[in-house]
């Protein structure tokens, strides 16, 4: 077409960013699917009986620049002051090399949880560094790869203590010096499990009455105590001792392991992860080797690959709730991988000397601050401290806090007559001087030569830490940058290829959406700052909640849960509180279909419910007759049902309203798992089809990246009758709270808000429609080669589809794992494996993938089918073939070659690129070896050189 300068055509910027297939590509796809257009496909696919009446309308969609302008206005309503509020949150300095190369790098933040180890070696190494760092600092042998936040980690440690303690006591002791949010979340967790909580001074601890106890180190008001005697007394009574410790302080003072602690927990926020108005940040949990099998969350371990080379993987995966369902020990799925990676790099960046110097500097500043106040006549507590002091000020409390506020400093009121002050890495002399002025002291702060300190010297740390070479590398930024790049290059994330994981919704995380996360107005806010400093946050959160209510048809929201599973737990606890308020506390049965995600039954048992499993009909739907029978049998004990919509089988069940009605008829509440909302937004409202409560995975449907296994956000929406029972503010210290902070991982909420603003109602709806189109296109292209296990009555699937690989086990000895590993050779991350049906792959392309990428994937799958056929027909060996030997690495290009297929076929199957070939860094990882020889901290350097020498 000839181009003339005046030939103006309107150009739609917005939809070209997020929606993968171009209009021309879509036209081709309609032809393949034999439908007239998208309307026709959606009409065939989504049952009329559940469609929402009115289209979603959020006004005009914003362009990227309009959204960022709006975001600037909102951010400007947050006031960033110096917050010396402590209580588990501290200012920190994120090294720019980490901010740019990790936090703001899609190679790190768009990765998935490292379940496919061969294409996740980079983040597995970074997480192993994290585990090593935690193990060293706490003085305990084993540490996990992160938990959601400190309060959740405390609650997990409590239930873990109950599992491993020999004591049969029913009570748990909580040090009254624990942070209020830790106490709150432990109380919440204890109640449905029948654990009696005793909060008090450790001096009054009666060890024989408890199965365990937790102590805060330092205490919330700065007190530092050696818990060695208490823990010894607990051990004498067969009970477990837990210490919640600040990892930075552990560089100076006696570590929990040296006190005899069995478990240590805490937050690594101050290791370079901004406070972010409460989250995200990585919590840690470490324990003795003997208890490792009872640990919650993920654990990275060292194993070997098919060539005997060292390879990392997730160890003891059978502990995960996906597999253990109601027998799970925890529901933690999404955790805080990206933040754990950041914290580990902070330790790599600073090394042990650097961390120690930071801790010493913070302490010296605190001691200087205290000395001048003491000299002015104020009473300072405690006698020995690290970074937190409490000043007795009598009736002056309000006046001093106000005076500090005028100086731009937030101080923490403690009781009615005291003020708490916590210093951090970012505190500088002007802030210290401002605090003095607020107390009426005029002085200049100089880092004088004296080594004045107030640390308890009898508790000085004696053991070494961070001795591994990784914490002693050359720290020139060139080296740091290249180490980060090297690890990132080992991994396959969304910045390289489609990650078609069913149920996980790995869609575009647009750059424009990510930018505000680093803005100081969002990242530098302390969650306990006065509300008038956080007006921007509240405007954003309120508007996001209103829009999510409009999308789901619910009446109220809670932003507290910081993962999907945490949302399930919060939602079920809300149902529990509702029944209790109605005088029906005996309702404790929860009906859950066989096909539910493993977190569903795990959360139900944590909420004190009994799980009754409902059968699946041959077409994949819930067996309504079985459901009805079980609801009737439960009768007045029915608390809830927990269903997923569209079902995890990837179809829109027509019977969903009936299932909800049956539940309601027996007085139960309907929990709908909203993880599949990507098939619904703009078309169906969960609140209208019968749901009372749902969680939404903002890190699936609403564009928050997965971060290699977290962060996430799992807010819950509820109908009005449940609203009074939503979780309260955790800082009040009361039962009911589920996270460390009132809005969970607040600083990633701008991502979802930006996504909604830029899509608008019609853009969001279009995304849903194209997600359904893409899934149906894949199902169609694979037709004939693979069987799609479940389809709706018109032969269509929802936004994902399950293909059956079980027949090939018999016909060719090929398993679902072989296919997953072979896809790596083609440069793809495998779809979800063996869930919800063993021996299948669940494929979810999302709307963000172009037709070209879908075709590349389908070509790879069809080529794999031909390889299977070659085995079936005896043209290829059953044991020595490209599938069994997958993935192939650069090692397969050199050396001896004894295989009945070419190196070319092995390394460059259809779908793979030639120039831009992704090379998995290791061959297939040996799972059994890794679990038999469990190593969960960085192996000593000799083992590296050995492996190299062996080559
Ligand atoms: C992802 C998912 C969950 C759990 O969400 P997390 O954020 O990982 O805790 C629950 N149910 C379903 C169906 C899911 O796909």
From TrEMBL:
Coiled coil: none
Xref: Gene3D superfamilies: Aspartate Aminotransferase, domain 1, Type I PLP-dependent aspartate aminotransferase-like (Major domain)
Keyword field contains Oxidoreductase: yes
Cofactor(s) needed: pyridoxal 5'-phosphate
Keywords: Oxidoreductase, Pyridoxal phosphate
Substrates-to-products reaction catalysed: N(6)-[(R)-lipoyl]-L-lysyl-[glycine-cleavage complex H protein] + glycine + H(+) = N(6)-[(R)-S(8)-aminomethyldihydrolipoyl]-L-lysyl-[glycine-cleavage complex H protein] + CO2
Keyword Oxidoreductase: yes
The EC number(s) this enzyme carries: 1.4.4.2
Modified residues (N6-(pyridoxal phosphate)lysine): 700
Location of the Glycine cleavage system P-protein N-terminal domain: 16-439, 474-727
SUPFAM superfamilies named among the record's database cross-references: PLP-dependent transferases (SSF53383)
Residue ranges of domain Glycine dehydrogenase C-terminal in the record: 767-888
Record family assignment: Belongs to the GcvP family.
Record function comment: The glycine cleavage system catalyzes the degradation of glycine. The P protein binds the alpha-amino group of glycine through its pyridoxal phosphate cofactor; CO(2) is released and the remaining methylamine moiety is then transferred to the lipoamide cofactor of the H protein.
PANTHER family in alphabetical order: GLYCINE DEHYDROGENASE (DECARBOXYLATING), MITOCHONDRIAL, GLYCINE DEHYDROGENASE, DECARBOXYLATING
Assembly: The glycine cleavage system is composed of four proteins: P, T, L and H.
Designated name of the protein: Glycine dehydrogenase (decarboxylating)
């Amino acid at each position: 077409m000839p181009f003339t300068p005046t030939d103006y055509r309107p150009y739609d910027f917005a939809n070209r960013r997020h929606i993968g297939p171009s209009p021309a590509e879509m036209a081709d796809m309609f032809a393949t699917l034999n439908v007239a257009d998208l309307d026709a496909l959606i009409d065939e696919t989504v049952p009329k009986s559940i469609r929402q009446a009115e289209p979603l309308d959020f006004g005009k969609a914003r362009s990227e620049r309009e959204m960022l302008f709006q975001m600037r206005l909102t951010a400007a309503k947050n006031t960033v002051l110096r917050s010396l509020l402590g209580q588990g949150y501290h200012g920190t300095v994120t090294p720019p090399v980490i901010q740019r190369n990790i936090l703001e790098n899609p190679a790190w933040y768009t990765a998935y949880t490292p379940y496919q180890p061969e294409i996740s070696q980079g983040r597995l190494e970074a997480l192993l560094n994290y585990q090593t760092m935690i193990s060293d600092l706490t003085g305990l042998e084993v540490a996990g790869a992160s938990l959601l936040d400190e309060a959740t980690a405390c609650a997990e440690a409590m239930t873990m203590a109950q599992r491993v303690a020999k004591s049969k006591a029913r009570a748990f002791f909580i040090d009254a010096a624990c942070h209020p949010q830790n106490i709150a979340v432990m109380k919440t967790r204890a109640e449905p499990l029948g654990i009696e909580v005793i909060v008090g001074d450790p001096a009054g601890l009666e060890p024989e009455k408890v199965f365990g106890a937790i102590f805060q180190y330092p205490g919330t008001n700065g007190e530092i105590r050696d818990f060695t005697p208490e823990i010894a007394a607990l051990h004498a009574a067969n009970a477990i001792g837990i210490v919640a410790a600040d990892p930075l302080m552990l560089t100076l003072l006696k570590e929990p392991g040296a006190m005899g602690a069995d478990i240590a927990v805490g937050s690594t926020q101050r290791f370079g992860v901004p406070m972010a108005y409460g989250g995200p940040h990585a919590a840690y949990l470490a324990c003795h080797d003997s208890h490792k099998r009872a640990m919650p969350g993920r654990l990275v371990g060292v194993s070997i690959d098919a060539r005997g080379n060292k390879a990392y993987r997730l160890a003891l995966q059978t502990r995960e709730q996906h597999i253990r369902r109601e027998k799970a020990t925890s529901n933690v799925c999404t955790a805080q991988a990206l933040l754990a990676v950041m914290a580990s790099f902070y330790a790599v960046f600073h090394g042990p000397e650097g961390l120690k110097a930071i801790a010493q500097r913070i302490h010296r500043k605190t001691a200087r601050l205290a000395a001048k106040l003491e000299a002015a006549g104020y009473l300072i507590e405690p006698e020995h401290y690290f970074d937190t002091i409490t000043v007795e000020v009598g009736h002056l409390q309000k006046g001093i806090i106000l005076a500090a506020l005028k100086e731009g400093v937030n101080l923490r009121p403690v009781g009615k007559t005291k003020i708490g002050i916590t210093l951090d890495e970012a505190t500088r002399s002007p802030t210290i001087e401002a605090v003095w002025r607020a107390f009426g002291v005029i002085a200049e702060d100089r880092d004088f030569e004296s080594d004045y300190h107030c640390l308890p010297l009898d508790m000085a740390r004696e053991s070494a830490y961070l001795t591994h070479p990784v914490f002693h590398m050359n720290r020139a930024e060139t080296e740091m940058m290249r180490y980060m790049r090297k690890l990132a290059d080992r991994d396959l994330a969304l910045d390289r290829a489609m990650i078609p994981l069913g149920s996980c919704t790995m869609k575009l995380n647009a750059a424009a959406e990510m930018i505000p996360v680093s803005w100081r107005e969002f990242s530098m806010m302390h969650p306990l700052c006065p509300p008038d400093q956080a007006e921007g946050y509240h405007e954003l959160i309120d508007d996001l909640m209103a829009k999510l209510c409009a999308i789901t048809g619910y009446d109220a929201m809670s932003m507290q849960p910081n993962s999907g599973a945490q949302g399930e737990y919060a939602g079920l606890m809300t149902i529990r509180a509702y029944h209790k308020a109605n005088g029906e506390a005996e309702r404790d049965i929860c009906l859950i279909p066989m096909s539910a995600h493993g977190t569903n039954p795990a959360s139900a048992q944590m909420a004190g419910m009994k799980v009754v499993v409902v059968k699946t009909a041959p077409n994949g739907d819930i067996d309504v007759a079985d459901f009805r029978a079980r609801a009737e049998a439960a009768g007045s004990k029915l608390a809830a049902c927990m269903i997923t919509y569209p079902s995890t089988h990837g179809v829109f069940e027509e019977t969903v309203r009936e299932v909800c009605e049956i539940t309601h008829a027996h007085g139960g509440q309907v929990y709908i798992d909203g993880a599949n909302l990507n098939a619904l937004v703009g078309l169906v409202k969960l609140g209208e089809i019968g749901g009372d409560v749902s969680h939404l995975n903002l890190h699936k449907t609403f564009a928050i990246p997965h971060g290699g296994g977290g962060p996430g956000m799992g807010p819950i929406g509820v109908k009005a009758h449940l609203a009074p029972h939503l979780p309260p503010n955790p800082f009040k210290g009361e039962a009911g709270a589920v996270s460390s902070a009132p809005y969970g991982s607040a600083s990633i909420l701008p991502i979802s808000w930006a996504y909604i603003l830029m899509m608008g109602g019609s853009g969001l709806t279009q995304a849903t429609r194209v997600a359904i189109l893409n899934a149906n296109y894949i199902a169609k292209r694979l037709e004939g080669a693979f069987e799609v296990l479940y389809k709706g009555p018109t032969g269509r699937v929802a936004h994902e589809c399950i293909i059956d690989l079980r027949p090939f086990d018999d016909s060719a000895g090929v398993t679902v794992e072989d296919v997953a590993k072979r896809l790596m050779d083609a440069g793809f991350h495998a779809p979800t494996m063996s869930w919800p049906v063993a021996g299948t792959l669940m494929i979810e392309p999302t709307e963000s993938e172009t037709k070209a990428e879908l075709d590349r994937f389908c070509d790879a799958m069809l080529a794999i089918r031909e390889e299977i056929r070659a085995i079936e027909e005896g043209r290829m060996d059953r044991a020595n073939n490209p599938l069994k030997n997958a993935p192939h690495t650069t090692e397969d290009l050199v050396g001896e070659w004894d295989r009945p297929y070419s190196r070319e076929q092995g390394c460059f199957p259809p779908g793979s690129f030639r120039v831009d070939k992704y090379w998995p860094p290791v061959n297939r990882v040996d799972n059994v070896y890794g679990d038999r020889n469990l190593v969960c901290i960085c192996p000593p350097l000799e083992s590296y050189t050995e492996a190299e020498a062996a080559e």
